[in-house]
Structure formats: C-alpha cells, structure tokens
Amino acid sequence: MNHIETVNKYAMDASIGVLVSLIFFGAVSFFLVFNKFDRKKKIEMKKENEILIIALTILIGLMIRIVLAYQLPGWGNDIGSFRGWAGQASTVKGFLNFYAGLNDVNSFPYTPLYIYVLGPLGAFSNAIPGLTSKGAELIIKFPAIIADLGLAIYIYRVFYNKFLPQVRVALFMLIALNPLLIVNSSVWGQVDSIFILLIAVFMVLMAKDKIYLSTFFMGLALLFKPQAIFFLPVLMVCLLRRIFAGNIRKTKIESLMAGWLNDTDGTKKSVKYLSRIAEIIICAAIGAATFFMFSLPFAAPKVSDAFPLGESPFWIFNLYLNAGESLKFAAVSALNLFGLLGKNWVADSEILLILDYNTWGYILMGAGYAVSIVLFFIGCKNIREKKDGVLQKTPDNFTTLSAIFLSPVLMNVSMFMFGSRMHERYMVPVAVLLLFAYAYIKDIRIMILFAGFNITNLFNVLYLYLLKTNIPYESNGENIGYGWINNNTAYVYGFSALNLILTIFLFYTAFDILVLKNIKGRQFIITDKKEQKVRRKENLLRKG
Questions:
Q1: pLDDT of 401-420, one tens digit each?
Q2: C-alpha pair distances (Å), 335 with each of 346, 368, 423, 495
Q3: S-S: 11 plus which of 368, 456, 470, 491, CB 3.0-4.6 Å?
C-alpha cells in the first residue's frame, strides 16, 4: 500500500466518525428544529424526567470519556509534555521555578494558568503508588473531561428559562455527547474545553452587562491559552461601544461623576463620556491585575535572545511573543484557506504573488476582523436599556446581544480560515460557541453552521490523530510528513472547501441578523412559556 492509499484509508476512517456525528446531530436536533409549537400536540416533559435524563446523560458522557481516555493513547507530543510539566510543577520549588530555565523559542511551554492545573495533577499522580502509564495519562486528560461536561451544564443553566425542558435537554446533549469534544479531550488529550468554557462565561457575562467580571474571565482565558489574544478585540469593541451608546443604563460611576460635576439633571454629555472612559480604564486595570497576579509567583527566566525581558515581571510578554515562532508554516495541518491551496507544512516565508504567506495571512485575517467589528457596531448602534430594572425586549436590544454572541465566532473563524500558522484545533471553540449564539438568537441557520463546523473540525482532528498515531513521522526524503495532513488528497481539499463555504455562509448570516434584522426559523422553536402565550395570541389574531 503506497502513501496516498494509506492516508486515504485513515481519511475514510475519519469520515466514518463524521457519519456517526451526523447521525448524532440529526437525532438530537430533531427537538430543536421540528418541534413546532402546537398547543394541541405539544410534548410535555415532567421535571423529574428532565432531571433523570440530565443525570443519565452526564453519567453516559463521563463513562464514554473515561473509557476512551484510558484505552486510547493521547497525542504523543502533547501528553508527553503535559506529564513532564505536571511532574516538574508537582513540588513548590518546581512550580515556582517552572519558567526559570527557559532560554529559547523551541522550549515554549503552556501559559501560566494551565500550570496551576498541572501542578496538583502531578502531585496527585506522585501520591499513587504503582500508577501505570495509562492511569497517569487519564489523570492528565481528566480536567478537560470535566470542562466538557461543565460546558454542557453551563449552557443548560444559562438558558434554563428560555426553553421548554425537551429543548434545553437537547442543547445539553449537543455538548455533553458531542463527538468533537469527546475526541479532542478524551482521545487526543487537549484542553481546549477549559479555554472554551472561560470564553463562554466571558460572553454570557458581557451580554449581562457585567463588564468587570467578564474582563476578569477574559484575563483568565488569556492566561490559559495564547490563542485568547485573538479574542481580545471582542472585549475591546464591547467596551468601546459603551462610549457611544445612547440608551445604556446609568452606572454607579456615572452617578458618582454626576455628583462631582454637579450634573444633577443629567444634561452634561461629558459626564457620560468620562464615566464610560473610566469604566474602560477600570477594566484595563482588572485585566492587567489578573494577568500579572497569576504570573508573578513564577521566577522569571534569565535574559536571553528569546527572553530580552527576562529577570523582570514583564518576561511574560516574551512568552506570548514566542508562542507562534516554533512552527513557521502557512498552515499546520489545518483545513483552512491555505489548506485549500495545498500549503500545509509549507514555509510561510514563501512568496505568493508579491507577498509571503505570513503577510497574506495577516492581511486576510485583518479584513475578516474588520468586517466582524463593523457588523458588531451596526448591531449595537441602538443599545439595550433597562426600565425599572427589567431588560426591555426590543429589536435593537436583541441585535445588540446577538452581536455579543456572534462577534467571538466571526473573529475566531477569521483567525483560523485566513491566518497563517494555524493548527488543526484552533477553530474548535467555534464549534461550541455557535451553540451559545443559537440558544440566544434561535436562528436555524446558526444551528446548521454549528453542525457544519462540528463535522469539519471533527474530521480535521480525527484524521490527523489517526495519521499521527498510525504512521510514524519521517523527516527524510520523499517520506516527509507521512504522519501529518497530506496536501494531495481529495479529503483535504474537500473539507477545506467546505470550511470556506461555511465561513461565507456565517458572515452572510451575521449580516442578515445584525444589519437586516432577519431571523430565520425562529417560529419552529419552542421557547419560554411567556413567549408561547404571546405567539398564541398572535396566531389567534391572525386567524380572527
């Protein structure tokens, strides 16, 4: 069997996983799509049955993950690094000096917050006599497994009052039994679920106007993964739009400033602008304090070419700047635009037309971010307001919150699809955050995008995992890259093209929702009981 036949075999195996995923999404999404409200035939679910289903789903999801995590080897490089770092950070001295020995780009470890997770895991592993290699690997994988189920519980609780039981149970199952998350966390052994949970909490808090707490969680996300840098513009635009928002509710800072400036009647616009700017400064202080609070306990590395800021509290910035310097390729096993062009594992210094791939990546990613920001501000041009402490449900308020839920997705997709040096897992957050966006907006197109991106990401992750674990990587002659995504297969071109089509559809859907204020298929969704009564009256009026 030649090389192409071999990689096609594993692509076919990955496609079987995609087929299973399709069946899963089709079965669970039945409740979300075809459960049209009909007061004569509506499906009832008793509270005790709902609790039982949730409990059984957690148990089944946990058991599936534990069995797979124990039986299947994780991604060798990642698991090996995690176990080594856990052992190093398992003692107080090792933890505090974790970064002290760094001196070059290639020795880059994870950012500080994950070391806080690995340290206790290493200490726990050391305390178990006769622990097998499989057992140690299971312990390393366990935080991501808990984060998977934590995401499911979080979306269930956040939108509990927005849906009838069968629909919120379906939302819960779409994460708790999600094939992509199971493969990524329990098989591969990666920790993207923890990062996604932090970003999801950030989004929900920002939608609730809790800007200080949301800034804190963005700081935690940044401390956990360098990729959070690409989500920072979401926080920035969410804070900037408050300066120019017309009907935003009055804050405590604004009330204090009004007293200081004798603006008792609220006529001075300067008070509003100054208070909004003060809020941004406070958020910046919270973010900086969070960032440094978790990094200061670590001893700084010595000054070197890779760490010119070593031996100072600012060495942490070098750590982030070095994060993308080890793999300088147009794409790193990613099914994105560069994957479609056949440029996986091609040096990003090579020239396309008059620019290198890295420069093209920044230009195209910047364009995607620019479009995302424009759509965000259009959606937020009329801010929501509260009357007597109750959020008013107006079309403008709806699009504002829709923009908050959609903008992280748009920016993450722009980063992965158009940026260079993207890894295969960098779009996994999109496959989960879209469900949070759907749960608020209830546009059927978002559910289609959720299923589509889950399928393409599952193929990307599973295909690469099968290649890496079954074909040894050889770096000589024509065998180079055997264990990585191959550029010359129909599967790579096909799924890369599908990702591009989904990206275009995503931006079109966001434009339709945020600019044109069109929601498709919302009438097919059973939502909260108050909304049911309103729709029932509307239907009676139409019939009358």
A1: 888 899 999 999 999 999 99
A2: 14, 17, 9, 7
A3: 491
Query: Quick one: tokens of 161?
Result: 């009052």
pLDDT digits (tens, 9 = 90+) for 349-400: 898 888 999 999 999 999 999 999 999 888 877 554 555 554 455 555 677 7
Provide CB contacts within 8 A for 304, sequence distance 6+. 102, 103, 104, 310
Structure tokens at 417: 């699809």
Q: Which of 149, 2, 125, 129 is nearest to 62 (CA)?
A: 149
Tokens of 532: 């049911």
Count CB-CB contacts under 10 A for residue 62.
Answer: 16
CA dist., res. 429 & res. 412, Å (int): 8
The distance of Cα 43 from the centroid of its chain, to the nearest Å, equals 33
pLDDT at 373: 92
CA distance 152 to 183: 16
Which amino acid belongs to residue 154? Y
**Structure-derived torsion over alpha carbons of residues 97, 100, 102, 103, reported in degrees to the nearest 10:** -170
CA distance 301 to 311: 6
Q: Are 297 and 313 in contact (CB under 8 A)?
A: no
Closest C-alpha among 386, 387, 381, 417 to residue 400: 381
Name residue 187's amino acid: V
Report how far residue 288's alpha carbon sits from residue 222's, in angstroms, rounded to the nearest whole number.
11
Cα(187)–Cα(468) distance, integer angstroms: 13
What is d(CA 89, CA 299) in angstroms, rounded to the nearest whole number? 13
Token pair of 122 as six digits: 């290493």
Q: Determine which helix (DSSP H) or strand (DSSP E) holds 390, and give its type and residue range.
A: strand 390-391
Record the pTM: 0.87
Spatial contact of 144 and 68, defined as CB atoms under 8 Å apart: no
The pair of structure tokens assigned to 99 is 């970064």
- Of the listed ranges 109-118, 193-202, 237-246, 338-347, the least confidently predicted one is 237-246
Residue with tokens 């926080």: 235
DSSP SS3 for 474? strand
Q: Which of 519, 294, 533, 289 is nearest to 402 (CA)?
A: 519
Other C-beta atoms lying within 10 Å of the C-beta of residue 156: 21
Q: How far apart are the C-alpha atoms of 424 and 405, rounded to whole Å?
A: 23
CB neighbourhood size of 297 (10 A): 12
Strand, coil or helix: 132: coil
DSSP codes of every residue in 320-384 = HHTTTSS--BSEES--SHHHHTT-BT-BTTSEETTEEHHHHHHHHHHHHHHHHHHHHHHHTSS--
From CA 483, how far away is CA 453, in angstroms rounded? Answer: 24
The pairing of strands 390-391 and 386-387 is: antiparallel
Least Cα distance to 443 among 334, 527, 542 occurs for 527
DSSP conformation class of 527: B
